[in-house]
Amino acid sequence: MNLMKPRALAMPFAMPSAASLALLIACLFAATTSLPTMAEPVVDSERVAIDVRRTTLIVRDIDKSLPLYRDALGLKVVYDQKIGGGKDSEGKETPPTVRLVLLRANDTFIGALGLMQRLNDLKPTPAENKKPMAGAMIVVINAKDLEERFPKISKVPGVTVATAPERIEYPAPGGGVIPVLFSAIYDPDGFFIEINKILGTPAGTEPVKK
Questions:
Q1: Are the C-beta atoms of residues 166 and 139 closer than 8 Å to each other?
Q2: Rounded to an integer, what distance in angstroms lies between the CA atom of residue 37 and that of residue 55?
Q3: Contacts of 81 (CB under 8 A, 6+ apart)
Q4: Which residues, other chains included, contact 183 with Cβ-Cβ below 8 Å and sequence gap of 6+?
Q5: How crowded is residue 33: how many other Cβ atoms within 10 Å of its Cβ?
Q6: For residue 117, which of 7, 14, 52, 178 sits 20 to 30 Å off, Cα-Cα?
Q7: CA distances from 100 to 65, 108, 113 (A)
Protein backbone atom coordinates (compact mmCIF):
# COMPACT_ATOMS: atom_id res chain seq x y z
CA MET A 1 0.00 0.00 0.00
CA ASN A 2 1.37 3.39 -0.99
CA LEU A 3 1.22 6.11 1.64
CA MET A 4 1.14 9.68 0.40
CA LYS A 5 3.86 11.88 1.75
CA PRO A 6 2.46 14.54 4.12
CA ARG A 7 2.23 17.89 2.39
CA ALA A 8 4.03 19.55 5.27
CA LEU A 9 7.09 17.40 4.55
CA ALA A 10 6.87 17.57 0.76
CA MET A 11 6.82 21.36 0.62
CA PRO A 12 9.61 23.68 1.68
CA PHE A 13 9.00 25.44 4.99
CA ALA A 14 8.81 29.23 4.85
CA MET A 15 9.39 31.33 7.95
CA PRO A 16 6.47 33.69 8.64
CA SER A 17 7.12 37.40 8.56
CA ALA A 18 7.19 39.38 11.81
CA ALA A 19 3.79 40.90 10.98
CA SER A 20 2.25 37.48 10.31
CA LEU A 21 3.70 36.08 13.53
CA ALA A 22 2.32 39.00 15.54
CA LEU A 23 -1.12 38.49 14.02
CA LEU A 24 -1.01 34.77 14.83
CA ILE A 25 -0.11 35.44 18.47
CA ALA A 26 -2.91 38.00 18.76
CA CYS A 27 -5.43 35.53 17.35
CA LEU A 28 -4.29 32.79 19.74
CA PHE A 29 -4.53 35.18 22.69
CA ALA A 30 -8.03 36.27 21.70
CA ALA A 31 -9.13 32.68 21.31
CA THR A 32 -7.87 31.62 24.73
CA THR A 33 -9.18 34.64 26.62
CA SER A 34 -12.65 34.23 25.10
CA LEU A 35 -13.03 30.59 26.13
CA PRO A 36 -16.21 30.05 28.20
CA THR A 37 -15.82 30.02 31.96
CA MET A 38 -16.49 26.56 33.38
CA ALA A 39 -17.20 25.55 36.96
CA GLU A 40 -14.51 23.42 38.56
CA PRO A 41 -13.50 22.49 42.13
CA VAL A 42 -10.92 24.57 43.94
CA VAL A 43 -7.56 22.98 44.73
CA ASP A 44 -7.49 20.60 47.70
CA SER A 45 -5.40 22.97 49.82
CA GLU A 46 -8.15 25.61 49.67
CA ARG A 47 -11.20 23.39 50.19
CA VAL A 48 -13.49 23.88 53.20
CA ALA A 49 -16.20 21.68 54.71
CA ILE A 50 -18.99 23.93 53.43
CA ASP A 51 -20.80 24.16 50.08
CA VAL A 52 -23.29 26.88 49.14
CA ARG A 53 -25.81 24.43 47.78
CA ARG A 54 -28.96 26.31 46.79
CA THR A 55 -30.80 29.63 46.76
CA THR A 56 -34.58 29.32 47.13
CA LEU A 57 -36.90 32.10 45.96
CA ILE A 58 -40.36 32.39 47.55
CA VAL A 59 -42.58 33.07 44.54
CA ARG A 60 -46.25 33.85 44.05
CA ASP A 61 -46.92 31.38 41.25
CA ILE A 62 -44.36 28.79 40.20
CA ASP A 63 -46.07 28.31 36.86
CA LYS A 64 -45.32 31.96 36.06
CA SER A 65 -41.68 31.58 37.16
CA LEU A 66 -40.82 28.47 35.15
CA PRO A 67 -41.03 30.18 31.73
CA LEU A 68 -38.04 32.28 32.83
CA TYR A 69 -35.88 29.87 34.78
CA ARG A 70 -36.69 26.61 32.96
CA ASP A 71 -37.54 27.73 29.44
CA ALA A 72 -35.61 30.95 28.77
CA LEU A 73 -32.56 30.30 30.98
CA GLY A 74 -32.56 26.57 30.28
CA LEU A 75 -32.24 25.26 33.85
CA LYS A 76 -33.31 21.65 34.32
CA VAL A 77 -36.12 20.76 36.73
CA VAL A 78 -34.91 17.94 38.99
CA TYR A 79 -37.62 18.11 41.68
CA ASP A 80 -41.26 19.24 41.65
CA GLN A 81 -43.35 18.20 44.62
CA LYS A 82 -46.19 19.43 46.83
CA ILE A 83 -45.29 19.20 50.51
CA GLY A 84 -47.06 19.48 53.86
CA GLY A 85 -50.24 17.48 53.31
CA GLY A 86 -51.39 14.82 55.71
CA LYS A 87 -54.08 14.37 58.35
CA ASP A 88 -55.27 16.72 61.10
CA SER A 89 -55.95 15.78 64.73
CA GLU A 90 -59.32 14.35 63.71
CA GLY A 91 -57.88 12.22 60.95
CA LYS A 92 -59.13 14.36 58.09
CA GLU A 93 -56.96 14.79 55.01
CA THR A 94 -55.23 18.17 54.79
CA PRO A 95 -53.96 19.63 51.51
CA PRO A 96 -50.28 20.36 50.84
CA THR A 97 -49.14 23.80 51.93
CA VAL A 98 -46.03 24.22 49.77
CA ARG A 99 -44.93 23.45 46.23
CA LEU A 100 -41.17 23.20 45.80
CA VAL A 101 -39.35 23.08 42.47
CA LEU A 102 -35.57 22.63 42.26
CA LEU A 103 -33.60 23.49 39.13
CA ARG A 104 -29.96 22.90 38.31
CA ALA A 105 -27.44 24.07 35.74
CA ASN A 106 -24.17 22.11 35.48
CA ASP A 107 -23.68 20.66 38.96
CA THR A 108 -25.71 17.95 40.71
CA PHE A 109 -25.21 19.35 44.21
CA ILE A 110 -24.21 23.03 44.36
CA GLY A 111 -25.50 26.14 42.64
CA ALA A 112 -29.10 24.92 42.41
CA LEU A 113 -32.08 27.28 42.34
CA GLY A 114 -35.26 26.59 44.30
CA LEU A 115 -38.72 28.02 43.66
CA MET A 116 -41.16 27.74 46.58
CA GLN A 117 -44.83 28.65 46.46
CA ARG A 118 -46.97 28.76 49.60
CA LEU A 119 -50.20 27.18 48.41
CA ASN A 120 -52.24 28.48 51.34
CA ASP A 121 -51.30 32.10 50.60
CA LEU A 122 -54.35 32.86 48.47
CA LYS A 123 -53.80 36.63 48.29
CA PRO A 124 -50.05 37.30 48.08
CA THR A 125 -48.92 40.91 47.99
CA PRO A 126 -48.39 42.26 44.46
CA ALA A 127 -44.87 42.03 43.02
CA GLU A 128 -42.84 45.24 43.14
CA ASN A 129 -39.71 46.01 41.14
CA LYS A 130 -37.35 48.11 43.21
CA LYS A 131 -33.63 48.53 43.61
CA PRO A 132 -32.24 45.90 46.01
CA MET A 133 -31.34 47.44 49.35
CA ALA A 134 -30.34 46.04 52.75
CA GLY A 135 -32.39 42.95 53.51
CA ALA A 136 -32.92 42.12 49.82
CA MET A 137 -30.94 39.79 47.61
CA ILE A 138 -29.40 39.60 44.14
CA VAL A 139 -29.12 36.33 42.21
CA VAL A 140 -26.20 36.24 39.75
CA ILE A 141 -26.37 33.82 36.82
CA ASN A 142 -23.60 33.26 34.27
CA ALA A 143 -24.72 32.76 30.66
CA LYS A 144 -22.06 31.88 28.09
CA ASP A 145 -24.55 32.67 25.29
CA LEU A 146 -25.96 35.87 26.78
CA GLU A 147 -26.11 37.74 23.48
CA GLU A 148 -28.27 35.05 21.86
CA ARG A 149 -30.31 34.17 24.96
CA PHE A 150 -31.24 37.63 26.25
CA PRO A 151 -33.94 38.43 23.64
CA LYS A 152 -35.85 35.31 24.75
CA ILE A 153 -35.39 36.21 28.43
CA SER A 154 -36.67 39.75 27.91
CA LYS A 155 -39.89 38.49 26.27
CA VAL A 156 -40.97 36.24 29.17
CA PRO A 157 -44.31 37.49 30.59
CA GLY A 158 -43.74 39.31 33.89
CA VAL A 159 -40.04 40.00 33.26
CA THR A 160 -38.86 43.62 33.34
CA VAL A 161 -35.49 44.51 31.84
CA ALA A 162 -33.43 46.69 34.18
CA THR A 163 -30.25 46.71 32.04
CA ALA A 164 -29.80 45.26 28.57
CA PRO A 165 -26.42 43.55 27.97
CA GLU A 166 -23.55 46.01 28.18
CA ARG A 167 -19.82 45.69 28.87
CA ILE A 168 -18.66 46.78 32.32
CA GLU A 169 -15.40 46.29 34.22
CA TYR A 170 -14.81 45.22 37.82
CA PRO A 171 -11.47 45.82 39.54
CA ALA A 172 -9.45 42.58 39.62
CA PRO A 173 -7.99 41.41 42.96
CA GLY A 174 -4.41 41.47 41.66
CA GLY A 175 -4.74 44.64 39.65
CA GLY A 176 -6.27 45.32 36.27
CA VAL A 177 -9.92 44.65 35.52
CA ILE A 178 -12.40 41.81 35.04
CA PRO A 179 -14.49 42.58 31.92
CA VAL A 180 -18.08 41.38 32.07
CA LEU A 181 -21.02 41.54 29.67
CA PHE A 182 -23.62 42.61 32.25
CA SER A 183 -27.40 42.50 32.15
CA ALA A 184 -30.12 42.64 34.80
CA ILE A 185 -33.82 41.91 35.01
CA TYR A 186 -36.65 41.79 37.53
CA ASP A 187 -38.34 38.40 37.49
CA PRO A 188 -42.15 38.01 37.75
CA ASP A 189 -41.90 38.32 41.56
CA GLY A 190 -39.67 41.40 41.55
CA PHE A 191 -36.42 39.55 42.36
CA PHE A 192 -33.38 41.32 40.91
CA ILE A 193 -31.48 38.86 38.71
CA GLU A 194 -28.10 39.58 37.13
CA ILE A 195 -27.38 37.55 34.01
CA ASN A 196 -23.75 38.00 33.01
CA LYS A 197 -21.12 36.65 30.66
CA ILE A 198 -17.59 36.82 32.08
CA LEU A 199 -15.16 38.00 29.42
CA GLY A 200 -11.97 37.80 31.50
CA THR A 201 -10.65 35.75 34.43
CA PRO A 202 -13.23 35.35 37.21
CA ALA A 203 -12.27 36.43 40.73
CA GLY A 204 -10.93 33.52 42.78
CA THR A 205 -9.60 31.57 39.80
CA GLU A 206 -6.19 33.23 39.54
CA PRO A 207 -3.17 30.89 39.82
CA VAL A 208 -2.24 30.11 43.43
CA LYS A 209 0.79 32.15 44.53
CA LYS A 210 3.57 30.04 46.03
A1: no
A2: 21
A3: 99, 100
A4: 146, 150, 161, 163, 164, 165, 166, 194, 195, 196
A5: 11
A6: 52
A7: 12, 17, 11
Contact 198, 178 (CB under 8 A): yes
Q: Give, for 81, the enclosing helix (H) or strand (E).
A: strand 76-83
Distance CA 92, CA 75 (A): 38
pLDDT in tens, the chain (210 residues): 444 433 343 444 344 454 444 444 344 334 434 444 567 788 899 999 999 999 999 999 999 999 999 999 999 999 999 999 888 888 899 999 999 999 999 999 999 999 999 999 989 999 999 999 999 999 999 999 999 999 999 999 999 999 999 999 999 988 899 999 999 999 999 999 999 999 988 877 765 455
Distance CA 76, CA 47 (A): 27
What 3-state class would DSSP assign to 50? Answer: coil
CA distances from residue 195 to 89, 145, 192 in whole angstroms, order as listed: 47, 10, 10
* Cα radius of gyration (the chain): 25
Tell me the three state secondary structure of residue 66: helix
